[in-house]
Design a protein that fits this description.
about 300 residues; 6-phosphogluconate dehydrogenase C-terminal fold; Rossmann fold; about 50% helix; 8-stranded mixed β-sheet; alpha/beta; 2 domains
Amino acid sequence: MITIVIDGLGLIGGSLAMGIRKQWPNAKIYAVDTNRASLEFAKVQGIIDDGCDTLEDITRQADFIILATSVDLILTHLNVLSQLKLKRGAIVTDVGSTKKEIMEYSEPLIHQGISFIGGHPMAGSQRSGIHAARSDLFQEANYFLIPHDEDIMSEQAMGQIKELLNGLGVCWKQLSAEAHDRIVGQLSHLPHILAAGLVNRTKCEAEQMHFPIQYASSGFKSTTRIAASDPQMWTAILQSNSDILIEDIERFESYLDEMKTALQKGDMEYICRYFRQAKAIRINLDQDKTYNSDRFR
């Protein structure tokens, strides 16, 4: 019988617990969370077997430990785990949205013979907490795995993680930590900055021009949906990936400057090409299922 500890019982941690329970009904699933109401709800619903509020109380017999808190807490809890005596053969993984720092903080575990595999499922919601969790959250989502090059057991550990989470229906992708942080910086982190910026700037314009922001159309709401995400979580993510995001912002600023110049010059050809290219890419994003590679760096 396998024993799994999930540290953090929010949207992602709760959804992982549901998915694992569905595939492995006899597994022992324990959770760590400071929110006792979340633990009680998950226990009553049969999502977990039991829970507590500290890692020290529950990790020593775990076969798998999944760190599903915010990035800053993942770093802190990796330091905690490195001071504990974990079960021989235990595998530690995480679901953090950045990887470079997390992989560095996990090195003491590797030196102790504990496998750590960085992980990041590209799925989520603007909603948060255990009540928003669902077992199909990760269906067809890309799930990144980042191994330690110096860990000779990493291939075996990744295989065991894939087996544990096979019921989630994800598409596995293997990357280096640097490649991961650059990719998600563009695909996830920068869009969150832009969405929040658009909402904040629009609110300022609404106040200055005396119109209610509730006039916003469905297009504005769709574009800015992710601005409703957890502010503390995103503060920690951006702090952890700040160097890459500064570069991304600077490049995007230059891209906006090109549009500004086209508008000033009345360059309708550039503007039409700008929208035509975006339309084609966006349509293909929903339709193209041909990319199946599970490894790139």
